[in-house]
Amino acid sequence: MNIIEKADNFVLNTYNRFKLVIDHGKEMYLFTDDGRKFLDMASGIAVSSMGHAHPKILKAVKEQAEKIIHTSNLFYTDPFVKLAENLIKNSVFNKVFFCNSGAEANEAALKTAKKYGNSIKKNKKTEIVAMTNSFHGRTLATVSITGQEKYRKGFDPLLPGVKFAEYNNITDLKSKVNKNTCAVILEPLQGEGGIKPANLDFILLARDLCDKYEALLIFDEVQTGIGRTGKLFAYEYFAPVEPDIITLAKGLAAGFPIGAMLVKEQYSKILGPGDHASTFGGNPVSCAAANAVLEILLEKNFLKNLNDICEYFRNKLFELKGKYKQITDIRGLGLLNGIEINFPASDLVGKLIEHNILTVAAGSNVVRFVPPLIVKNEHFDIVIDALNKIFKEVK
Ligand code: PLP
Questions:
Q1: Would you place residue 6 in the very low, low, confident or very high pLDDT band (cuts 50, 70, 90)?
Q2: SS3 readout for 272-310
């Protein structure tokens, strides 16, 4: 049996994998075991923020792994404390909780919201308002707040007390948030839901309603955080609005499993000892990788260059839209961009693979470009060239 046959034989069939066996990666490229070379515009679903085999990430990971790989949260280590300090000093938050994934970071946020809601003596707040078309993960609680039926189907009964407001619909949001609401959770830009940014007036209203009804405003920045949208965190686009909590994962440790919940001072004592935990949370190797990511991202001009590169790509995408009627929209922020097409996204993803380019669908008719943040204009030229060839063929 070859690797793919063995996987079919031994691995639970929960994914539709491409028939490619990745052997190794270098910078912007991935190499398969049969010698094919692919330009990586997917980053393992917006994770490999520094590309592949980045020397600074490798050095940080190697040095840490040689010292100690795991300690549990019964002890302190330097990398996890350094990462907490790094995240706090570069954000508007005051405390961090570490875990291993985006869904887990959202679980921590949900538990914070629930415990906060239950602590209010005169009127317990038990409801969470989430958004239609959202995506927050695959655990039972996070599918319960995910506003897409396809992820929820078959898992009833889900978490009670969840209401969905239509994303970017002010009237609907107003009708859903009230004195029973303990939290409003949203993605500042919906990723899996088709690359849809939130409108400023919607976010302003969410903040106002949360202030009025004393509910927590939670931004799920699992995909948008850590430079992905051209700023360190996407909430910065909505200044002066500041959420009470954000959740992070994906690009934070350049591929090492990590999740984090960042909390404002006012809500930092809701979870106390024994309320929440994670055996692997704050793993020193993951945290060392994350510290290296932040060091690179915060280098002078890194984010500015990233924004220039992103503008270059977006201009090219808009030119393409002018040329081909198959493209119905271009959406995104920074290096989280999607092209909406009038045929299945999976067909375009497949055609790009024929051109040795890896991308990832976001919903049924949007193809997402989420390259490592080290991408250059020349890589986008390769993508635009391939898209031109494909759209000329596909009528
Ligand atoms: N939240 C958002 C916005 C995401 O995009 C994802 C994953 O795609 C998740 C949460 C879940 O993250 P994980 O797969 O690490 O649990």
A1: very high
A2: CCCCCCCCCCCCHHHHHHHHHHHHHHCCCCHHHHHHHHH
The pLDDT tens digits for 128-138 are 999 999 999 99
Q: Is the CB of 194 under 6 A from ligand 1?
A: no
Instruction: Quote the CA–CA distance of 40 and 314 in Å, as a whole number.
Output: 17
Atom of ligand 1 nearest to the CA of 104: 16
125 lines ligand 1 (CB under 6 A): no
The predicted structure's pLDDT at residue 264: 98
How do residues 187-199 score in pLDDT, each as one tens digit?
Answer: 999 999 999 999 9
Q: Which atom of ligand 1 is nearest to the CA of 187?
A: 3
From the number of C-beta atoms within 10 Å of its C-beta (0-12, 13-18, 19+), residue 138 rates as: middle
Would you state the structure tokens that stand for residue 301, as one six-digit string? 């001009």
User: For the segment 217-263, what is each residue's pLDDT rounded down to a tens digit?
Assistant: 999 999 999 999 999 999 999 999 999 999 999 999 999 999 999 99
If you take atom 10 of ligand 1, which residue's CA is the nearest one?
Answer: 136
In this prediction the pTM is: 0.98
Decide if pLDDT at 395 tops 80. Answer: no
Structure letter (DSSP) for residue 138: S
Report the distance separating Cα 142 and Cα 103, nearest Å.
6
Residue 282 CA to ligand 1 center (angstroms) comes to 18
What residue's CA is closest to ligand 1, atom 5?
A: 223
Alpha carbon of 116 to ligand 1 centroid (Å): 24
Please give the domain boundaries of the chain with CATH numbers for all domains.
Answer: 3-53+301-393 (3.90.1150.10), 57-297 (3.40.640.10)
> How high is the pLDDT of residue 261?
98
Asked if 127 and 177 touch (Cβ cutoff 8 Å), the reply is no
Using a 6 Å cutoff on CB, does residue 101 contact ligand 1? Answer: yes
220 lines ligand 1 (CB under 6 A): yes
